[in-house]
Write a structure and sequence with these properties.
about 290 residues; alpha/beta; two-stranded parallel sheet; 11 helices; 10 strands; binds NADP nicotinamide-adenine-dinucleotide phosphate
Length: about 290
């Protein structure tokens, strides 16, 4: 989801440079020897690592795969980058935090993940810090975008199929549009940012409020009943932090950038891609 937006943004931001996008068909980061060979052959100046096993409940059920992809896969990417002296940009998550702070998390706050996905991504961060000089770790959250499965597409699909939707109302975060995040990543690279940065759209909400906004903006609020429920009622295998809002001040200080509010970004996304998201047969938008 993020990778495809990122390739587009980088093509426009760096017209004189070559931008190469690889998916799992071109590089499986669980296959270490092959991955090292492929990366060293390309010898990139900058390696942006967005590949991950992102199914949070899947990670809970398959811890071995979660660590093989998110931790050991990242180790392999970091090792290859250090051999080529490439700069590494690694995408990480708000799920490295436990949510107990109840005020926006800064980069200096101590991580304490509650689930396997968060632990595996945190170990990925540690490998990047150990193995490459000047690495950039970007933590983000609650992504949606034009490509790939996401909450917005799922709510619209379910609203077409069901009479009532139950949505969790006890987790607070900042929904983030991949197009906005991709631009922020490009800007952080331009500023040669190093270390950890928190990047998300501004303002906060619960998944329930986010769901209501999606339906409202799509003119579907009267077609489906929305019921607020607790995380416990939903009973997902992986525990999520109840509060994972970011403090993005460091991004502003380094680049002058503050991402627009999540509601503005959502409006823009729905207006731009309504046709793609609304068409259930259009696989490009999922
Ligand atoms: N989505 C979110 O809400 C969120 C929140 C915080 C952080 N992040 C982080 O942001 C980054 C991008 O997320 P996203 O939502 O764009 O994820 P995504 O759509 O799931 O993309 C991840 C990609 O990695 C690929 N992949 C999985 N295993 C791989 C392997 N062994 N080798 C190579 N590629 C592999 C996946 O391929 P398949 O689809 O074929 O498995 C998928 O194309 C990830 O690092 C994620 O951890 C995401």
């Amino acid at each position: 989801m993020l990778g495809r937006d990122l390739v587009g943004v980088l093509h426009s931001s760096y017209p004189d440079d070559e931008v190469v996008g690889w998916d799992i068909e071109e590089i499986d980061i669980q296959k270490q020897e092959e991955s090292l060979f492929r990366i060293e052959k390309l010898r990139p100046d900058i390696l942006i690592h967005v590949a991950a096993y992102t199914d949070v409940d899947g990670c809970e059920r398959n811890e071995e795969k979660a660590f093989a992809v998110n931790a050991e896969g990242t180790k392999c990417v970091a090792l290859a980058a250090s051999r080529c002296r490439a700069k590494v940009v690694y995408l990480s998550t708000d799920y490295v935090f436990d949510g107990n702070k109840m005020e926006p998390y800064a980069e200096s706050d101590l991580p304490h993940p509650l689930n396997v996905y968060g632990r595996s991504k945190l170990q990925g961060e540690q490998y990047v810090q150990e193995l490459v000089k000047n690495g950039l770790i970007i933590r983000t959250q609650w992504l949606y975008g034009r490509y790939g499965k996401n909450f917005v597409a799922s709510i619209l699909q379910q609203a077409r199929e069901k009479k009532a939707l139950s949505i969790v109302n006890d987790q607070i975060g900042s929904p983030t549009y991949t197009a906005d995040l991709a631009k922020a990543i490009s800007v952080l690279i331009q500023f040669d940012a190093q270390g950890i940065f928190h990047v998300a759209n501004s303002d906060r909400c619960t998944w329930y409020a986010f769901g209501q906004a999606i339906l409202n903006l799509s003119g579907m609020m009267n077609e489906v009943k929305v019921i607020p429920i607790s995380s416990e009622e939903l009973g997902r295998p992986a525990v999520r932090p109840s509060y994972s809002v970011f403090n993005c001040q460091k991004l502003k200080e380094k680049t002058g950038l503050t991402l627009r509010s999540w509601s503005e970004a959502l409006k823009d996304y729905l207006a731009t891609y309504r046709k793609t998201i609304d068409d259930p047969d259009n696989s490009e938008g999922r």
